Amino acid sequence: MVNLSENRTPPRTDFYYFMSKTNLYGNALVPASLLIGGAISGNKEMRQNAAYVASSSVLSYGAVLLIKKLLKRPRPFRGNYRIIPVYIAGDYSFPSGHSSSAVSTATSLSIAYPKWYVIAPAALWAGSVAYSRMYLGLHYPSDVATGSLMGAGTAVYLNTIRNRVQ
Question: Which of 59, 137, 149, 153 might form a disulfide with 85, Cβ 3.0–4.6 angstroms?
Answer without folding.
Answer: 137
